[in-house]
Amino acid sequence: MRSGQRLGRRFGWLWGAYGTSALGTWLAFGAFPLIAVRVLDAGPAEVAALSSAGSAVGAAVAVPLGPWVEFRRKRPVLIAMDLVRFAALLTVPVAYALGALTFLQLLLVSVVVAAADITFRAASGAHLKTLLPAADLLVANARFESTAWTTTIIGPPLGGAAIGLLGPVATVAADAVSYLLSALGIGAMGGHEPLPERREAVRLRARDLLDGWRHILADATLRPLFLHTALFNGLVMAASPLLAVLMLGRLGFAPWQYGLAFAAPSIGGLLGSRLARPLVTRLGQRRALVMAGTMRAIWPVGLAFPGSGTAGLLLVMGVELGLIFCCGVFNPVHATYRLERTAPDRVTRMLSAWAVTTKASTAALTAVWGVLGGVLGPRTAIGLAGVFLLATPLLLPHRAAALPSEPESASSRA
């Protein structure tokens, strides 16, 4: 198959909707903390709570949504989650215009958006599995990945300019509109989506909430991969605030230099996503996954060593370029691997459980590394995170295993 192959009109609408909402998200990147500080005079503790508590509570709210969505048509769920995010975010500029904006409202909106994000991603993965044949999933996931990095490159600079001209509330309004456009795009996909086969039990039971985790932990290769991604993502994100403190504080970099250090290397994600398919063709899916997962763990420890000036900035950019390139290869292969190892009637629950755990572990590790940064200093804490990351490749699926979903999928077609 060629990387430029056509995946159909319906996928084109889904891809366009994803790109639109992703661009809106990056346009509004950092808007909530800015609103909290500039408009509501919030302190550091409140700003930290806005980012960590909002994600953690949103993840908890999303737990029952995975089993609930599993046996419903996914396209209406995607549209509903887009409209929920549109409505929640739109309350911020409305309240600001009326002079009624509060910190509690910002916190509640972040919770609603986080829960809707998890549910949307889980339903989107399940819908993609039914929309395309298995042979096309890697190409589709690579396109999503390249789009994600493209919006990462262009979104923050445009958002920063918009914030400078119009203020952070305007970028939140733009983000809200992007979800409305995404909902319209998904609605334009058309086609018939069959209703998933329901289980005997119609009502959601308490034990159903853990079905996604049961499936992951019962699979010999999903289980270590699940632990790997939760730990890797959590440690990388936990070190990010400390790196900001180090670069913007002790090393004296200007805000534009700090932004450039992370925006420019995102081109590595574009290159990596383009190479994902050729590497899988040459090495095989599991070997490509292990190779990219191992390589991406090597880079972050270098973030503990930048100095001031141009040399320090180039060091950070070089480390980020290597890290993002490897992530660009790993992410679409990883997304495809999870889908292929999960039966269609479990995908939503699996992806929901995966996202909830990742967000919760990221919030917890960010809090722990915040304390370590205060005790040991940001540079030492960043280095410690990098050392722990060097061990994460041990959790990759180094041994092949049969697809556990194959018998179930075959029986469901009989």
UniProtKB/TrEMBL annotation:
Cellular component, GO annotation: plasma membrane
Subcellular location as annotated: Cell membrane
Pfam family, one: MFS_1
InterPro entries recorded: MFS, MFS_trans_sf
Domain of life, source organism: Bacteria
GO MF: transmembrane transporter activity
Main localisation: membrane
Annotated keywords: Cell membrane, Membrane, Transmembrane, Transmembrane helix
Annotated transmembrane regions: 12-35, 47-65, 102-120, 225-249, 255-276, 351-372, 378-396
Recorded topology in the membrane: Multi-pass membrane protein
Gene3D superfamilies named in the record: MFS general substrate transporter like domains
Name the UniProt record assigns to this protein: MFS transporter
